[in-house]
Design a protein that fits this description.
This protein is an alpha+beta fold. The chain is built from seven helices and eight strands; from the N terminus they run αβαβββββββααααα.
């Protein structure tokens, strides 16, 4: 599954191509991906300018000029490609933009990805985003916050770090690497790692520092979680 570094790579790849473009045509080639498309999906998109593309955890957030946010989750095998004619068997959504030449296609072999659209002012109430924890490399993610989120949890530390409410954006391969570098057994309970004291201990410090380092390294190389991950140009 594309995790935070892969989704950030896609965001950076799409931005120079689509930011500032107006959506002029949307072709939904099936009624659903993992979930059905919203009833008003095409109507809201057509005529709207993509002002910028943000990311929250594993979600792409296309900020539109009409006050809406168009959200895309890649699921297991979702891929965005710019400049494609979209004639493949698994090319499920096709877009055209105002310059007459620019196109984008969303391809998803397993169809575990999905799209949604919502008023940007209501983002804090959006069900996919409202419960997400802090993500690495942000001011909200600190060693103290990490300790607090792990405190009292009886689950193994690996499971706890995969909980998107504790830290958002992490997946199996990254958590495994973080714990390996931190020299902490993945089966040790989260509460053991966090400790009983209110002070941040050395284990938490190591996890915090290695989380930021591992994610920064992964973003630098364009992600690394799955062999069939592709950037927006189709390159692996």
């Amino acid at each position: 599954m594309p995790e935070m570094p892969e989704v950030e790579t896609v965001r950076r790849g799409l931005t120079p191509h689509l930011s500032g473009s107006v959506v002029t045509f949307v072709d939904l080639r099936r009624p659903n991906l993992r979930f059905p498309f919203p009833d008003n999906f095409e109507e809201i998109l057509i005529g709207a300018k993509i002002e910028r593309i943000d990311r929250r955890s594993k979600y792409l957030l296309f900020r539109l000029s009409n006050g809406y946010t168009w959200m895309s989750h890649l699921g297991m095998t979702g891929v965005w490609t710019v400049g494609s004619e979209g004639k493949g068997k698994h090319d499920h959504v096709y877009f055209e933009f105002d310059d007459g030449m620019k196109t984008a296609v969303y391809t998803d072999h397993r169809r575990f990805g999905f799209m949604d659209i919502f008023e940007t002012s209501n983002e804090s109430e959006q069900k996919w985003l409202s419960s997400l924890g802090p993500e690495p490399l942000t001011d909200d993610f600190t060693a103290q916050v990490l300790k607090s989120n792990l405190h009292g949890k009886r689950s193994p530390i690996k499971s706890a770090l995969l909980d998107q409410r504790v830290v958002s954006g992490l997946g199996n391969i990254y958590v495994s690497e973080i714990l390996f570098r931190s020299k902490i057994s993945p089966i040790k309970t989260a509460s053991e790692v966090a400790g009983k004291s209110n002070m941040v201990n050395t284990k938490i410090k190591r996890i915090f520092e290695n989380t930021n380092q591992v994610i920064a390294e992964a973003i630098m190389v364009g992600g690394s979680t799955i062999s069939d991950f592709r950037g927006v140009s189709g390159d692996s």
